[in-house]
Amino acid sequence: MERTNWTEVEFILQGLSEYPRAEKFLFVTCLVMYLVILLGNSTLVILTLLDSRLHTPMYFFLGNLSFLDIWYTTSFIPSMLIHFLSKKKTISFTRCVVQMSVSYTMGSTECVLLAVMAYDRFVAICNPLRYPIIMSKALCIQMAALAWGLGFCNSLTETILAIRLPFCGKNVIDHFACEILAFVKLACTDISLNEITIMLGNVIFLFSPLLLICISYIFILSTVLRINSTEGRKKAFSTCSAHITVVTMFYGTILFMYMKPKSKGSAFNKLIALCYGVVTPMLNPIIYSLRNTEVHGALKKLVTRHWFWRKG
Predict the structure, then answer these.
(1) What's the per-residue H, E or C state across the chain?
(2) Which residues in the chain come in under a pLDDT of 70?
(3) N or C end of the chain, less CB within 10 A?
(4) Of 195, 219, 196, 6, which Cα lies nearest the Cα of 94?
(5) Exposure string (b/e) for 116-135, b if CB count within 10 Å is 16 or more?
(6) Do 53 and 17 touch, CB atoms closer than 8 A?
(7) Alpha carbon separation from 111 to 12, 146, 172, 285 (Å, rounded)
């Protein structure tokens, strides 16, 4: 079989083409969610930069998470919205690779970043007196850089291996966006190496951070249970509740979708992937700011300052 030049390859993103009414509904729903994602996460990034009270390790990592969610969703939602209303659902090889590599970078980085945030909570609760010394500004920057660097290296490795594959015939990706598992399945050659590297990536970037998160919370739980006062226990748990909720949502959906190298391609799996890709980034800033008096205070201060500027 003659192999096609990769620069000439186009892919068809099938999505839910067999359900046109569902696509119109998803267009409206995802558009609203995307605007909420941009508003909520941008607000958190701005607050963590401008308000000195939020210049702490926890909010530094939260700002990174919000920045990451903006880029992750922007890598695929705008083109997905266009495809929802378009009869021609094609995407060029280059755009597909860029979309895939950016989203894979952000997903891998978020796994590591959530583990870093768990370590931050571990130090804050289990070693509060030394917390400012241990979680210094230099260490926080190094840990954030490590998360971004590891995510980029993982994505670069998977992307290089994927673009070396030959593609033949009609390239239909049974997904809303260019996704690594669906992408490599279209190759007209043996993809064993890709499957092995994807599985290794899953172990390193899913299980290893999750294991570190679990270990951190075992120590946190042990420390909290030794606190005599009920009020002290509540306060300790409240500092972790948002992170636990985000981790549960993130890993609950991503483990379901990416544990196996081969996608089933059902409409249900696509909706689960959409939940992971859209709903989770939308809820993250809401969860972290819902009962957070520091974020409320910073937002109120920012709005008041802006109102006075406009009045003046």
Answers:
(1) CCCCCHHHCEEEECCCCCCHHHHHHHHHHHHHHHHHHHHHHHHHHHHHHHCHHHCCHHHHHHHHHHHHHHHHHHCCHHHHHHHHHCCCCEEEHHHHHHHHHHHHHHHHHHHHHHHHHHHHHHHHHHCHHHHHHHCCHHHHHHHHHHHHHHHHHHHHHHHHHHHCCCECCCCEECCCCCCHHHHHHCECCCCHHHHHHHHHHHHHHHHHHHHHHHHHHHHHHHHHHCCCCHHHHHHHHHHHHHHHHHHHHHHHHHHHHHCCCCCCCCHHHHHHHHHHHHHHHHHHHHHHHCCCHHHHHHHHHHHHHHHHHHHC
(2) 1-8, 169, 257-266, 305-312
(3) C
(4) 6
(5) bbbbbbbbbbbeeeeeeeeb
(6) no
(7) 29, 12, 29, 17
Enter the tokens of residue 49: 């930069």
Q: How far is CA 225 from CA 193, 221, 238, in A?
A: 47, 6, 14
Neighbour count for residue 12 (Cβ, 10 Å)? 16
- pLDDT of 144 reads 96
Quick one: pLDDT at residue 2? 46
Which pLDDT score is estimated for 241? 86
* 309 half-sphere exposure, CB direction, 13 A CA radius: 6
Radius of gyration, alpha carbons of the chain:
21
